[in-house]
Write a structure and sequence with these properties.
Number of domains: 2
Order of helices and strands: HHHEEHHEEEEHHEEHHEEEE
Number of strands: 12
Number of helices: 9
Oligomer: single chain
Length: about 300
């Protein structure tokens, strides 16, 4: 094959591969432009609205337009927003969340039950955000006019029954197993590690773990990143690197030893975070909550 043929094949291949992570902007703008004036009024809030950072795991009405009320083309655009924000792995997980029982009422199955909401002045080259949210699934994407956003999420994920996050649980269980007795003691806390709140209580720094445990901590972080499309992963890594990297993060376990998955009777919570970034897991409610975000929210004394 000569150089000309190689070039043609390469161009055709690139054109055939979807640019995951870049299409979300186009899909979001197309969806917004397609909304009626009444729908835009319902679906648009100020960029600094407290609603944008609201964290609700439970089911129920959210601000915005319910996806199932949109026409077929608009529903596809909403799905395209999810598709381009997530990796293939993440999309599979997100859609599995929307199909879980008993979370879904019989008359509102699947992705159509969720709500899409926009924040700010929505348009190309402008600062705005969009959110897809309902029970156990909240995704917030921020678009910036200049530079990279300094915030990320909140991203809320869950499972009831607790059957969707086996690999993620196994990575945390492996981390606990590889920590020394002293490292476990330094990071062990009574009570619950309330999901989506800052790391609190006794902690151990990732950079101070023994080599095997440090590698296991990285595996925990990597499997959580796997949910996101490559450009979103890079955005998260930049935020973490700016705060000193994974070594600067602190980890804490709550409620008991992390030796079993939730569905096998495990009742423990986990947090890993740094200065303004959080990655956590909660199973002490007998089902699963996970969050990833910046900035952080402190837990109240009652929650602790």
């Amino acid at each position: 094959m000569n150089a000309r043929h190689i070039t043609i094949v390469t161009v055709l291949f690139v054109l055939a591969v979807p640019l995951r992570g870049f299409g979300q902007t186009d899909a979001a703008l197309q969806l917004y432009a397609s909304l009626s004036d009444e729908q835009k009024k319902e679906a648009t809030l100020p960029f600094d609205s407290p609603e944008r950072n609201k964290e609700v795991f439970t089911g129920g009405k959210r601000a915005g337009v319910q996806i199932r009320t949109l026409d077929e083309k608009q529903q596809k655009l909403a799905l395209d927003m999810l598709t381009s924000f997530c990796s293939d792995y993440g999309k599979q997980k997100a859609l599995a969340i929307t199909e879980q029982k008993p979370d879904n009422p019989d008359d509102q199955p699947g992705f159509g039950r969720y709500y899409v909401c926009f924040f700010g002045d929505v348009g190309a080259g402008k600062t705005y955000a969009w959110r897809i949210a309902e029970h156990h699934l909240t995704i917030v994407q921020v678009e910036m006019e200049k530079g990279e956003p300094k915030t990320f999420g909140p991203i809320l994920l869950g499972a009831n029954p607790p059957t969707l996050w086996d690999v993620e649980e196994d990575k945390m269980i492996d981390l606990f197993a590889k920590m020394s007795a002293d490292e476990r003691q330094k990071s062990a806390n009574p009570g619950k590690g309330i999901s989506s709140t800052d790391v609190y209580g006794k902690t151990v720094r990732v950079g101070d773990l023994n080599p095997s445990a440090k590698e296991a901590a990285k595996a925990v972080f990597d499997i959580r990143l796997k949910f996101f499309a490559d450009p979103i992963q890079e955005r998260i890594k930049k935020i973490v690197d700016a705060q000193g990297g994974l070594d600067a993060m602190n980890i804490a376990f709550y409620g008991g030893e992390a030796t079993k998955r939730c569905r096998d009777g495990g009742r423990w919570d986990f947090k890993m975070g740094g200065a303004g970034f959080l990655c956590d897991y909660e199973n002490s409610r007998a089902h699963i909550h996970l969050s990833m975000k910046t900035p952080l929210k402190a837990a109240s004394p009652a929650e602790k």
